[in-house]
Amino acid sequence: EKAINHIELSRWLYKFYEEHKGFIGKQMGPVFETLKESLMPTIADTIAFEVGEAKGFIDEYMLKYLEAYKGRHMRASLYQLKALIRETIEIQGDVKEALAERFDQWLSPVTRAEKIADREIIQAGNAIAKAVYIMAGAQRLRWVTYDKDPICLSLDKKEIDIGGAFLHKGESIQAGEQSPITAKSNITHPPLHPGCNCMIEAG
Questions:
Q1: Exposure check for the chain: N or C terminus, fewer CB within 10 A?
Q2: C-alpha angle with apex 69: 66 to 75, nearest 5 degrees?
C-alpha cells in the first residue's frame, strides 16, 4: 500500500508542477525582463555594440531561456520531493510530516526563492551576455572567474567557440581536494555550482 501511495503521490506532484509552469512563468518572466533591460546596454557597451535591431533576437533568446528555466525548476523540485518521499518510506516515516517540514524549509528566512534568485542572477545574466555576443558577431567566449573556488579557477580564461561548451554533459572536472563536479547538461556559461559568480566575456 505504501508503494502504491508513493507512486500516486509522485504522479500527483508531476501533474501539479506541469500545470503550474504558467504560474512560474508569470512570476519569473518580469524578473528576467528587468534583468535583461538593465544588463543588455552595459554588456553591449563593453564590446562597443549597438543593440538596435538585435533586440528582437535577444528578446526571443530570453523567452527560450524562460521556458528552459521552467523546466529546470520543475525537475529540481520533483527530484527533491520524490527523493524525500522515497527516503521517508524506506525508514517507515510519516510522508505528510516530511513534506510539510520541507515546505517550511523552502519558506524559511533564507528562502528557496532567495537561493534561486542568487543563482538566476548569474545564470540569466550570462545568458543575456551570450545573446548579445552572438548578435555582435563574437566567435569565442571566455570564462572569467571572480571567486576563489579551485574548480572555477581552473576554468579562468578558458576560451571556447561561441556555440560550444566549457563542460559537456557527463564530463567531470576536479581541482585541489574538492569532489569532482559532473555536468548534468552542457555548460555553455556560468554558473557551474551553487554560489558560483563567474561570468563570460567575448573572446
A1: N
A2: 150
b/e for 40-58, b at 16 or more Cβ within 10 A? beebbeeeebebeebbeeb
Q: How is residue 186 written as a grid cell?
A: 552542457
Cα dist from 29 to 71, 76, 87, 189, whole Å: 14, 19, 34, 20
The phi, psi pair for 188, rounded to 5°, reads: -95, -10
Task: Return the C-alpha cell found at 63.
Answer: 523567452
| Burial readout 108-119 (b: 16 or more C-beta within 10 A, e: otherwise) | eeeebeeebeeb
65-120 pLDDT, tens digit each: 999 889 888 888 888 898 898 888 888 888 888 988 888 888 776 666 677 778 88
Report how far apart, in Å, the C-alpha atoms of 100 and of each of 11, 84, 106, 107, 153 are: 18, 11, 10, 11, 39
